[in-house]
User: Fold these one by one.
Assistant:
Number 1:
Amino acid sequence: MRQALSGILSKSASFLKTIMILALATTFVVAGSASSMAARSAAIVIDAKTGKVLYSSNSDGRRYPASLTKMMTLYLAFEAMANGKIGKSSRVVFSANAAAEPPTKLGVKRGGAITVETAILSMVTKSANDSATALGELLGGNEANFAHMMTAKARALGMKGTVFRNAHGLPNPGQFTTARDMAVLGIALREHFPQYYGYFSQRSFLYGRRRINGHNRLLGRIKGVDGIKTGYTRASGYNLVSSVDDGDRRIVAVVIGGKSGGSRDNQMAALIKTYMPKASSRGSGMLIAKAGGGNPITALAKVFLPKRDAPTPDSRPDDDAPYNEAPDGDAIASLVEETEPVVEEATPVVETRPVSQTRKIATVAAATADDVATARVAAAYGEPATVDPVNTASVPSGWAVQVASSPKQSEAQALLDETSKQAPSVLADAVGFTVAFEKDGVTYYRARFGFGSKTAASKACNALKKKKIECYAVHQ
């Protein structure tokens, strides 16, 4: 009996020893993989007029993006704005998840709300993690779905070496990119959304009574630098994507894995000085194709937000009407993300919206269970086969013609269809869509057609009025 028991214990000890060895081996492999991603710096310089690679160093090696991730979050936000899904003054409500993000952050409390524009400004300057999460949840329904959308969009833009897991870039071992991919995204942001690209040149912005300064020290220091984004985590090192335009030549340069903010900036400055003169003064067309195609991931991005007009087509919304944003004034220095100093002034004193109010204010259209399931499969961890079909050229400057509104979305859609039949030539190139808003506790749906400019929208509306169709042109 003792011998049998001794044998069993001996085998058990041997088994446990084997398990421990395997566990340690796995740990070393994972640690080694993570270390290899962060071990060497990577850089690339691309002529943004011709697409020619002027300089490359480890540009296709996997690296952690850190807050460069927010470039894709902003890309999808700009796309939603261009297509009339959201506007600059649309509200971004902060969930408990968004409010709990670690610094750098604005510090908006759960249930608080800011505008889309404030979210954008806080991301390009302060690199606010809570704003990125809140904006991602607004566009995707939840952050996991939004991360799938981000990865799908990366594939659509030709970013083959990138996978996103979150909207902000805080550490996640499954989130990675390459210097080349970040350069592609930098070029795409400028090419596809020139109307919004100016946000990246913002060096500071006023938030309540507080002046928030940005992290990008090359803005104003190097001639021609007009953006785009900095990033830092311990695993990634110091990252920077810069767009430079001297009026004749244009480049996008990327540095990932700098040992310090200063050395990263100096490396970027040296790359700009060396390769800007080698860029071409000539170029033809757009380098990065805009995404199109059919995929139910689009369902996750259908966001309907309120404005402030009555439910009639001839009542113009007052987009400049004041309302209270809800910052908490979190001025804690960055402990996780950006460690570069940020100069901030007095804490803002602004009311916080109760959760009950914010639930009435923002309504996110839920995709069907089948759509969500299919989208998740299509975007499964790294290699989504197709992308969302939003055509970013449809409404490049965010202008629309509203023809009606109804308490039922189906009726609003039917009105769009009927109007299209009545004026097919006028609306041939327009994109029809519905937008929800709240009025006296009742949800209504606007019926709108998107156009590429104010002139086009006004011209179309005048043509519709000649056909006895009431309408008005409005900026999203």
Number 2:
Amino acid sequence: MPQPFNRQPRPRPQFRPQPDEMVFGIQSVIETLRSDQQIDKLYMEKGLSHPEIQNLAFQNRVTIQRVPVEKLDRLTRKNHQGVVCLVAQVQYVKLSNVVADVYERGETPFFLLLDRITDVRNFGAIARTAECTGIQCIVIPGRGAAAINSDAMKTSSGALNHISVCREPDLTETVKYLQESGITVVACTEKSNRDLYERSTDLTGPIAVIMGSEEDGISPELLRMADNHVKIPLLGSVGSLNVSVATGVVLYEAVRQRSIKVDK
């Protein structure tokens, strides 16, 4: 007697939005969170509660940014249902893995922490300089950082494809972890009494340089936690440098010092 034909159900296609794509609507965002794509930004309307999205975001270490509905309406005119996310252009890595890998390779840690750098083009320019100076990892906060979108990728001239990026929910905990890992945290701030070019400024060891926001610099708590503070001498009338330029000055001074140490 012939057996009945049993049609196997087709596997459900995986939802894979393109990098830098905006995804909106509750179900679409849920599917994105379930996929292996990493999310750069996740916006949710203030007052909206959705346990599944919130749980998935927590599991994926994605910070939910609560915003007024007007912001979501500016992002898209379509029915967003109170939630919008942006797919990341890069794959974020764990800082602990980077630290372990650097030490295992016998290299001297050389990291860069960006505290609330929100301008996309500044971030891209910083990433380009960081890659050129041998920075092994850029660390950004989960909230209050520039989106790593196509503009950032373009401004970095592709450098973001060649450098590790870590997204940490709390930079104060990150600083503690780096210090416990034997890495000196150096804050670049105009409030410092130590000139970048003084002989006492040593950037040759394991270091993580902190650069602060375009508006108000490094947050007070991070300044208090930093092991050392340095300032870039300014000889003109303008009171500050663009943060991407300032980052280049500090990182290349570290490169200069390290090259001299190697030559000796």
